[in-house]
Amino acid sequence: MKKRRIFIIGLLVLLLACPSCMIYFTVKQQESYKKKVINSIDPYRIQLLSMAIESKTNPDYSPLSFNGTDEKTQAAAVDAINKIFDAVLEQEQSDDGFHYKAYNTKTKQYYKNEKSHYPVIYKKTSIIAKDQKYNDFNLRRILEETEIVIQLDENYKLMEDGRLKVKDVYVNLDQITINPPNIELTYYCTVYVSPMTNNISRFVDEYDGAILAGIASLLGLILFIFILMNSLEVEESINPYRTIKNWKLLTVLVVIGLTCFVFIGASAGTGALVITGELQRILAQYSVPYSITISYCLYFFSMFIFYFLFSMLCFTVKYMFVNGVDYFRNNTCTYALYAKTKELGNKVIEFDLKDNINQDILKFTICNALLVIVLYVLSPTKTIFAIVYVIISFLYIRKQSTKVKNDYKNMLDFTEQLSHGHFDTEIEDDLGIFNSMRDRLNSLKTGFEAAVKEETKSQNMKTELITNVSHDLKTPLTCIKNYVILLKNTQADEATKTEYLNQLERYTNRLSNLIQDLFDVSKASSGNIDLHPIDLRLQALVDQSLAECIEVLESKDIQVIKNVEDVVVHLDGDKTYRVFENLLTNIGKYAMPHSRAYIDIHEEEDHVSVIFKNMSEVEMNFSSEEIQERFVRGDKSRHETGSGLGLAIAKSFVIAQGGTFDIQIDGDLFKVIMTFKKNPNCKQKLEIRR
């Protein structure tokens, strides 16, 4: 464990030190270049630039003084110097390697060129005034050293004898002296190629490149020695070395070697861009903060990745030589090809001719081979291609047949699981030609599960039905029996007997209604309802139902608000009345006292909607599906009278007449929504009746 920790720490130190050293030496090489740039600044162009700026910022400035020349020569010299000034200013205005800020101490005006995005390596302020000599530089020497005249058109030419030709006039430059400008010039030099630095065209010459390449190689050698010095057992227990030791040699060479080559190129390119300032300029041009720091970080990252990949190559070389022949046997493509060939031969030897599928495959292959041979018999040189084709066909067909056989076996296993009732089993594998059968069996499994759940639910409902029916039948029968015993065994007065008889009548009616409800819901469930549809006015039917249920509604002071359209539908009057009566009875039993209930009837395009709404007195801790089941009451304690069949009967009667019945529960709001199909003839009859 200690050796492992030492190796990891040492490797990290080297991986961090190598790119750091490369950056250090790169910076040193860059400092060398900066000195070259500083030493190569052209003082003649500086003088010429200051004179040009003076002419731009001071209209009274006369740059030249003449001695013994005629007016024509003077005019030609002035024209030439103005052209030279324009050329210098135009050139330096777009110079990325040199930018400046100038101040005219006489006119108090400023002049500058656009600032470059390249990093500045040198800054200097030069004050040029009339009391400062030009170190005996004259106009002839300035023009000869700067070669600025070459950039003008063919009308201006500097002759070999030192004269300046301006069109057809020859100007003797020795007869002209320079009037110094009043310019304070602050100029900045960058790493970019500039005419001000004598057109240095390269930053890194062959000598500099050789130094950096030698340093990179030396650092790589140190890393390789470190890999060799440590124990192989320690190295191969650490990722990624643990992973690449299991790779084939060709994979290592292609993946690691190619990636390493890419990153050495990336690091070299990044280093060159960093040294020449191109990367910093690009980042600064897009307003990226800390462009210099980021450029060095990118250079460091690329070098770090390269040395990391190089360490994996070093480990592979060490692992390869330590394991010797075994490594080449187990990790080369040649041996892998040999192993695959041997495996293929074993499969051919193990080929079972007793298997029906194999027999069919063999027959097909032989026929196919004969066909190919016949096709190519006229061209013996193509026979080899026929043989290869036959072998490939045999292997492919055998592979497909084996897959079909395995898929079929999986299907049989799945169906066997289903036959034993194991519905939690599901097959999702690709079974090829059996995929459609797989999907149908999965659907069948889902259907079986749903059927089992439905059957379980039905059994539970039957049990609940028996329990509820027993309770609801037993309660009135017990009361009837008790009152009969009281009438037989007591000497009660007439008033008491009358009260007992009234109770007997009440419980007898309750028992009769329960039995009638049972008959109704049984008929509705079996579909044996006799319907006698007529043209029915729903508004009148609602009024009739309210009149019948007014007593139970007034007992709780429930006000019914109607929003009813006069609509005629073709329905069974008795069954529809029973639906409305059951709903109003439920409102009287379960609505909040001193509240309002609403009945809405609206005619839609193709149907009529009937809505009953009320606020519940107690919390409705049931779903809309549960309350529609038989023998389910809103009062689960069963204190209220009733059979719990009211909503079930209402739903059955509505559906039997082709309508829909839905219940919505929103907090304490209980809403029943029914729809009935319209009969076009009913609308015509209603209009005639009106």
Write the layout of secondary structure elements.
Blueprint: H1 2-39, H2 43-57, E1 64-66, H3 71-93, E2 98-104, E3 110-112, E4 120-128, H4 139-146, E5 156-158, E6 163-166, E7 169-172, E8 176-178, E9 183-190, H5 206-229, H6 232-235, H7 241-244, H8 249-276, H9 278-285, H10 291-323, H11 325-331, H12 333-349, H13 356-376, H14 383-419, H15 435-489, H16 494-526, E10 533-537, H17 538-548, H18 550-554, E11 559-564, E12 568-572, H19 573-590, E13 596-603, E14 607-615, H20 624-627, H21 646-656, E15 660-666, E16 669-677, H22 680-689
Parallel strand pairs: 11-13
Antiparallel strand pairs: 1-8, 2-3, 2-9, 4-9, 5-6, 6-7, 10-12, 13-14, 14-16, 15-16
What's the short story on this structure?
By secondary structure, this protein is an alpha+beta fold. Helix content is about 60%, strand content about 15%. The protein is built from 22 helices and 16 strands.
Mean pLDDT, nearest integer? 77
Instruction: Please tell me the total number of domains.
Output: 5
Strand order of the largest sheet: 11-13-14-16-15
Rg over alpha carbons: 53 Å
Q: Regarding CATH, which class of the largest domain?
A: Alpha Beta
Find the CATH topology of the largest domain: Heat Shock Protein 90
Report on this structure.
The structure is a single chain. The chain is α+β, with helices and mostly antiparallel strands and 690 residues long. Helices cover 60% and strands 13% of the residues. The chain contains 22 helices and 16 strands. A 5-stranded mixed beta sheet has the order 11-13-14-16-15. A hairpin with a 3-residue loop joins β13 and β14. The longest helix has 55 residues, at 435-489.
